[in-house]
Amino acid sequence: MSTTVTFRRLDFEEFVELKAKIAFHAIRLSPSISAFGENIYTGSISGNGKCFLFEYHEAQIPAASFIILQAGRLVFYHHASTVSPVSIQSLIRGNITKFCLQEQGRFCLHAAAMCVGDGTVLFVGRKGAGKSTLAAFFHTRGHAVWCDDYAVLQQQDGTFYAERGETALKINPDTADSLNITAAQRRPVFELPENWPRSIPSDGLTRKTYFSLQPAASHALPRPVTAIFFIGPRSPDPPNPVIPIGKTAALAVLMDEMLLPGLNSRNYMELYFKSAADLVDNVPCYGLEAPDDVSRIHEAYHSMLEKISRSTP
Fold it and tell me: Which H or E run includes 204?
């Protein structure tokens, strides 16, 4: 399925004029105490149907705003002069494009995908479960990043394929330090002003860096998904890091990890449920209890490779 998102930057007056034509109402607001946050609104406009406004703010003052029209195919945006191009591109490549693809009817899974052999393996888990740490370890062992944060999947004749997406992992400083990833191998996800007000809630996002040991992504054909690992709570001393997981339990995790729940249309939610059910029916699924000591992450890595080799024809 061919999809395209067109982004058009407007100056302040043009954006205000467009915004004034739409009666927006809030559907998700960040806490008022947040130094950095995301507010989401919905509305409708004649000739374009339902539309959305994603607004990113610094101390409740809008810094970057995106109006999404035409079922995710057209985005108008404006940002303050204090917001760097690097930060804008990170927002576009993240939640904005992700939401647009879902609006276009694409099956988007909250997961990281790494290349193993001729296929890809998906890492699924709650925020903070360790997806990025595990993916970064795989990457340091020579596995290419196929996509990070979300995977766009398509199905053909019972086989699921992952499209190539963001090929740089977003990792936090602790992950980088624990895996001996040097400062030269990282670049900031967001460029912040020198007087940026630091806070614990915002640091979790704003201190992340991109990590990639491969060239920038170029067009490539989708790769088959050969296994899915559902990352559970870390364990002090797991006897076997890779454990069986039933299809019902796997599907429950996928439903719980739906991207941007509460914002998507009923049609997309039906598509997501059907696609997720087909995914766990057709792709080998495993649970993962990784050791909580990062120095032992290689144990999980080797156990995962063994399972993949057994399940791949």
Answer: helix 200-206
